[in-house]
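JOB MANIFEST
job_type = single_chain_structure
chain_count = 1
residues = 177
[input]
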Amino acid sequence: MTGGSLTDALLGVHDVLAAAEISHALCGGLAANLYRDEVRATVDVDIAVAVAPARVVDLVNRFEAEGWKVEPYWRQGEQLRLTRSDLPRIDCILATTDYERKAIDQAVPARIEGHELSVLTPEDLIVFKLITWRARDYEALAAIINSRVERLDVDYIMGWLEQFSVSERWDRARGSS
């Protein structure tokens, strides 16, 4: 990577998604930094994207027209991994459940370097991370919970965790906070 920042990459992908009128919201490490007291370094950008399956090919073509290399990537869900030699990597996490689409729809605005972007709410970011349940997310979960414990809608979080049959993870995450 040479030159561009995480913000440059984020704004470039945001512009493509906005021009295609595709709902999306920042998630992952950058989003977590907005909800925690101490910022953690991250090397990529994660964006949750609500795109109909029939529009994925068009979206890939739009990204490629802007110089992005697009590769499908599956780990714990469907993603489009975007890379460019001059910018950090972007992972577009494709919304495949009603919950994920709802979380994107109710994302909140945040000002990032003078631009207004949608970001998952802290509750939805917690649910995303608890569903995915990756070791590298423990610290971010604890930091968000510690920073916002009095302001979190725990009933909302628990309702979704119960639907995904992972409600025990909340107690484990709280225990690490």
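[summary]
Strands lie at 23-27, 45-50, 69-74, 78-84, 87-94, 108-112, 115-119.
The two ends are 35 Å apart (CA to CA).
exit_status = 0
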